[in-house]
Amino acid sequence: MTQVPQDYPGERLGLPREGSGSIGRLGRRVAALFFDYGAAYLISGFFGWDPLAILAIFAIIQIAFIPTVQGSPGHRIFGLRLQRVDGGWVGLWRPIVRTALLIIVIPAAIWDADQRGLHDKAAGTVLVRA
């Protein structure tokens, strides 16, 4: 399989270089992740700070908000939205697959040239600037 060189992340996907619709960069992605995980951590205080409760609440946040508002609260606050690679609605199953792989961590830490983690590749999604 031959890799086609690209000038910027997302070019192969037909996304713009910058601005709305361009690939969400690392800083925004990490900030959004910390925001969502922090929210899950605070909410879990009602359940005794159980580590499994934190992960469960984090997953619920992701799975509930991604199909309804095109991203988690952290994504939206930091100017990101999640969409299918072809630009369509993510549907109901993609957030579940993406979140399950995100919780495992390793798939999210392995990226391609478009700065998409394996969790996004498996779900057929891309995180872009809103």
List keywords for this structure.
about 130 residues, two-stranded antiparallel ribbon, 6 helices, about 10% strand
In whole angstroms, the N-to-C terminal distance is 32 Å
How many domains? The number is: 1
Report the mean per-residue pLDDT as an integer.
94
Q: Residue ranges: pLDDT <50 for 5 or more in a row? A: none
Beta-strand residue percentage: 5-15%
* Number of helical regions: 6
Shape: elongated
Strands, count: 2
Helix/strand-derived category reads mainly alpha
The spatial strand order of the largest sheet comes to 1-2
Question: How much helical structure, as a percent, in the residues?
Answer: 40-55%
Largest sheet: number of strands, sense, barrel closure:
2 strands, antiparallel
Helix and strand string, N-terminal first?
A: HHHEHHHE
Instruction: Report Rg.
Output: 15 Å
Topology at a glance:
Layout: H1 26-44, H2 51-69, H3 73-77, E1 80-84, H4 93-104, H5 106-109, H6 118-123, E2 125-129
Helix pairs in contact: 1-2, 2-4
